Amino acid sequence: MPCNITAPSSDDVVTLVLWYKGDMKVPIYTLDARKGPIEKSKHFPSKQLGRRVHFDLHVRNPGLTIDPVKGEDQGLYRCRVEYKRYRTLSYMYELKVIGKH
Predict the structure, then answer these.
(1) Each residue of 61-86: b (16+ CB within 10 Å) or e?
(2) Among 22, 23, 35, 99, fewest CB within 10 Å belongs to which?
(3) What digits encode the pLDDT tens for the residues 76-92?
(4) Minimal CA–CA distance to 32: which of 47, 18, 52?
(5) Cα(82)–Cα(70) distance, rounded to whole angstroms?
(6) Cβ proximity of 5 and 13 under 8 Å
(7) 40-78, pLDDT tens digit by residue?
(8) What is the DSSP string of the chain?
(9) In 3D, which of 80, 89, 71 has the Cα closest to residue 18?
(10) Which residues are in the Ig-like domain (predicted)?
C-alpha cells in the first residue's frame, strides 16, 4: 500500500510515518525519523504483524508491504505522515484479500 512521504516543501522533512488498521489506536507499523534523516529512521512493526510487514523507502513509491498476506489482514488502513513544519497528512486504503489465504 503506497504512502506519499514527499515533504510538501524543500525545507521540510518527514519525522514520523504511522500505519493504523481499522479503528485501532496503536499503530501496526511505525517509521521514526525524529532523530535524523529518514534514510536512517527506525522501523517498528507491531507484534501482530511481526516479520510479515515492512515499509520500503528505496522504491519510487514507498509503501507498506504485508507478505504473506492473510485473510485477517483485510480491512481499512491509514497512513499518517508527520512533518517537522508542515501539517500532518493521512491516506486511507482498503485492502481486500481474494482467493486462498
Answers:
(1) ebbbebeeeeeebeeebbbbbbbeee
(2) 99
(3) 999 999 999 999 999 99
(4) 18
(5) 29
(6) no
(7) 999 999 998 999 999 998 888 999 999 999 999 999 999
(8) -B-----SSTT--EEEEEEEETT-SS-SEEEE-TTS-GGG-EEEE-TTTGGGEEEE-SSSS-EEEESS--GGG-EEEEEEEEESSSPPEEEEEEE---S--
(9) 80
(10) 1-90
Contact indicator for 13, 83 with CB cutoff of 8 Å: yes
* Residue entry with cell 517509521: 31
Cell 522533512, residue located: 13
pLDDT value, residue 80 = 98
Question: Which grid coordinates belong to 92?
Answer: 486511507
